[in-house]
Specification:
heterodimer; A: alpha+beta; Jelly Rolls; 14 helices; 26 strands; 24% helix; B: mainly beta; five-stranded antiparallel β-sheet; four-stranded antiparallel β-sheet; 2 helices
Chain lengths: 602, 218
């Protein structure tokens, strides 16, 4: 906003303040043109048919584009469409009936979780609205997107000259534990990531043991083989442990089922993953994946998860804004809706080109009756580039998502949140899914199953952060967390069943809900592996794998330990880093194998 | 030519149950430049391209090519005698992201002659990138015991490296698990190397022959 325009706007606001109640002042930082476009989009939303109300707005916009109707610039909105149809997640009341309907619509079921009421399928875009008319269909959404955090560097691996080893073996002093004869023997470790296609190659080089088991790899890959890299790290720290891999990339329900399969069928004592989903990993309540984590933890497995690699407030790299909804006022140009105020302005900004913007709020899953919407405007605030206008009328998730099919939400674009009249103020979580920075940012990026109370979430510390070479971590300021490592803490407002923890208090500002220490630990990354594309292997997936290797050593040293006892051994002996004591960047700090095993044996 | 020589650290580790409370085996730090300012001792033409491929102990890295030739850039050489250690890890901390390092065996002979301007001769490896996420870059090379490494630190941009801080570490190991004590089989291989300590030196200026090579072709 120019100074002259700012002065002019202040004058207008002054006049309006004399005419209107304070809560009805007009936001002056969104142009009338953009407000008019938002109004048209919201008018279309309010006019949707019963079947259309069951569809995610991203699917509706993609269908309109298919029909040649005017719509948003990025109408595909991240909908993954092939000749087999659009990739969608369905929520249903009766699975068999919908499976038949999908087939009749020319679709293809990819995953129908046993006993669950969710289906992942490909359905021709033109048939989706008709499918939504089936009374057994509750909702159809663009498929929840998964991501792993690994940074793709390329290793020079060519001839086979023996195995490579993570520097984290020394960083965590796990070699000292191995030298005492404790090597993970008798322990089963399950790894979940996108894929593990490099496993046979790594077995041939001696970087993975011959009995490594692939329970289920990625469907319709290829993936990046980050799971192979994670297993390499676990194997380097705990070479006696038996390894199992299952993909986390075949949909949220498949991910949850694979977590349970690793525990219940393969008997894994330690399970670790590095995957985050969009809608299926909500911040304020345990979703389907977190509930699987809770289950396997209750049955005796220690579950570790990468905290995420989407930045943190301490390093000035945060990609999240959390806070309570505050009205920025209403406008005659946007009747029936109120914009959210981010403080001095009614918008946030992308500081880099982004691929996905997501909004969650503190309503229970599948039962949101407070209708919020999300818009991305151009940098000048004069045109709507993308929108997410799902309807929340009591049976939907509290979630809006703008997923750019071309990952081209431009730098400096404005993010605007609107609440429908009557929507109660709620705690909001706004983020860039892929970690691009926000102009107005806060701590608290981690969410979903990685932030579940039963999970041990792991931040990343470069193995050579002390700049002393291959030496054990020493703690303190010498070993800060990585600038990209996601931060906590995590406030939750509901239990897994959707019951409010603090009924009637669902805001940050009033300390509603419960606050969880996240991350729990921090471990090494930036290390050498033999997996093509993961040398050096940066990001928190590598860190979680190191922590899992240490957990395997502890379990091997004393098999009778419970998950909580293993967790206590790691946290109580961790090297303190970042802020003194428990902090939002590293939790309890860096687990070191010798004192953790020693504590477990005492 | 000025050398600053240091002796390698040799820390025999006694493994016992008490090792649980100790750090255990790690590598030998055979050279530590400390934080020093980059001081060009010679001139080369172009520099090794940062191709994103890190060299490691799995095998030799193909020479990544030259970028920016024939524009002259300053380089500084560090000569390191690896002693008994066949597995070498080189770490370069270059917080200004103004420099790039590559390792060579026995000699570094830049010339003003396409296509590789001499930068491929004796080439062993490099990190492929600079200061990933603000961390020191590192790479690994495997050599015969008692080899002499020459680590060439080059300006990324002509004239852009002068006085910029750098911190170079060279570590030696007996195996790819970062041990500083030889396994029995490895011990036979490196037995001769154990008769003396590894030595390292920092060469603050290029040898005359290198300089001649570099300047005679301008």
């Amino acid at each position: 906003m120019t100074n002259s325009r700012a002065r002019s706007s202040l004058g207008v606001i002054g006049i309006l303040l004399t005419l209107l109640p304070l809560s009805a002042c007009v936001p002056d930082d969104i142009s009338p043109e953009a407000l008019q476009q938002m109004r048209e989009l919201l008018a279309e939303k309010d006019a949707r048919t019963p079947a259309q109300r069951r569809l995610g707005s991203s699917l509706l916009y993609a269908m309109k584009a298919l029909d040649g109707q005017p719509t948003l610039p990025d109408a595909a909105n991240g909908v993954d469409t092939t000749e087999d149809g659009a990739l969608v997640d369905l929520r249903v009341t009766s699975t068999p009936a919908v499976l038949t309907a999908i087939a009749q619509a020319g679709g293809m079921v990819l995953y129908a979780a046993p006993g669950s009421q969710t289906i992942r399928a490909r359905v021709p875009l033109a048939q989706i609205e008709a499918l939504a008319e089936a009374p057994t269909v509750l909702s159809i959404e663009r498929a929840s997107q998964a991501r792993v955090g690994g940074q793709a560097f390329t290793s020079a691996s060519q001839p086979i000259q023996g195995s490579l080893t993570t520097q984290g073996l020394i960083s965590h002093a796990a070699n000292a534990v191995q030298s005492s004869g404790i090597d993970g023997s008798g322990v089963r470790v399950g790894v979940l990531s996108d894929s593990a296609e490099a496993t046979s190659f790594l077995i041939s080089t001696g970087d993975l043991p011959a009995d490594t088991t692939i329970v289920q790899d990625i469907l319709g890959g290829p993936g990046s083989s980050e799971g192979s890299a994670m297993m390499e790290i676990v194997h380097d720290l705990a070479p006696g442990a038996q390894l199992f891999f299952a993909s986390a990339f075949n949909g949220p329900d498949s991910f949850a089922d694979n977590i349970r399969t690793l525990r219940n069928t393969y008997g894994c004592d330690v399970i670790v993953d590095d995957t985050e989903y969009t809608a299926a990993d909500p911040p304020f309540q345990d979703g389907v994946i977190a509930q699987a984590v809770n289950d396997v933890t209750a049955s005796g497995a220690l579950y570790l998860s990468a905290i995420g690699s989407e930045g943190n407030a301490t390093s000035g790299t945060s990609s999240v804004w959390e806070g309570d909804f505050v009205s920025a006022g209403t406008s005659a140009l946007l009747p029936g809706y109120t914009l959210h105020s981010f403080g001095a302005q009614s918008f946030n900004r992308l500081l880099a080109t982004a691929g996905a913007v997501e909004l969650f709020w503190s309503d229970p899953l599948g039962a949101s009756s407070n209708d919020y919407d999300l818009f991305v405007l151009n940098a000048a605030g004069t045109a709507v580039l993308a929108a997410s206008t799902n309807i929340q009328s009591g049976s939907q998730d509290p979630f809006e998502e703008i997923f750019s099919s071309a990952a081209v939400l431009p730098a400096n674009a404005r993010i605007v949140i609107a609440a429908k009249t009557g929507a109660a103020p709620r705690a909001l979580h706004l983020e860039n899914f892929f970690g691009e920075r926000l102009q107005i940012a806060t701590p608290g990026r981690t969410r979903g199953h990685a932030a579940a109370s039963s999970a041990v979430s792991v931040a990343a510390v470069n193995w050579n952060s002390a700049r002393t070479g291959t030496r054990p971590f020493v703690g303190g300021p010498a070993n800060p967390t990585e600038i990209f490592s996601s931060d906590g803490p995590r406030r939750i407002f509901f239990d897994a069943a959707g019951t409010a923890i603090t009924p009637g208090d669902l805001l940050f500002g009033t300390n509603g809900g419960a606050l969880l220490v996240k991350p729990d630990l921090a471990a090494a990354d930036g290390v050498t592996t033999r997996t093509p594309g993961f040398s050096p292997y940066f990001h928190t997936g590598a860190a979680a794998a190191h922590a899992a290797g240490i957990a395997a050593l502890i379990k091997s040293a004393k098999p009778s330990l419970t998950p909580q006892q293993i967790r206590d051994a790691m946290t109580s002996t961790a090297l303190d880093i970042r802020d003194a004591g428990i902090d939002r960047d590293s939790g309890y700090g860096i687990p070191m194998a010798p004192p953790a095993v020693d504590a477990a044996l005492r | 030519m000025e050398y600053k020589k240091t002796s390698a650290t040799w820390l025999p580790i006694i493994f016992s149950s008490l090792a649980l409370l100790a750090g255990g085996a790690q590598g030998a730090l055979i050279f530590d430049s400390g934080v020093v300012g980059f001081a060009a001792g010679g001139t080369q033409f172009g520099r090794v391209s940062r191709d994103g491929v890190v060299s490691d102990w799995s095998g030799p890295k193909a020479f990544p090519g030259v970028i920016g030739a024939p524009t002259a850039r300053g380089y500084e050489l560090f000569a390191v005698d690896v002693g008994a250690y066949p597995f070498i890890q080189i770490t370069l901390d270059d917080p200004a992201v103004a420099l790039f390092g590559a390792a060579y065996l026995d000699a570094y002979t830049p010339v003003n002659s396409a296509p590789n301007y001499g930068l491929d001769l004796g080439y062993l490896g490099d990190a492929g990138t600079s200061e990933p996420f603000g961390n020191p870059s590192f790479f690994q090379v495997a050599v015969s015991p008692n080899s002499q490494l020459l680590i060439a630190i080059t300006e990324l941009n002509p004239g852009g490296g002068s006085g910029q801080p750098l911190h170079l570490l060279v570590e030696g190991f007996f195996d790819t698990a970062y041990n500083d004590t030889p396994e029995p089989a490895t011990g036979l291989m490196v037995l001769s190397g154990l008769t003396g300590f590894a030595r390292a030196a920092r060469r603050r200026s290029a040898p005359p022959s290198d300089s001649a090579n570099a300047s005679s072709t301008r």
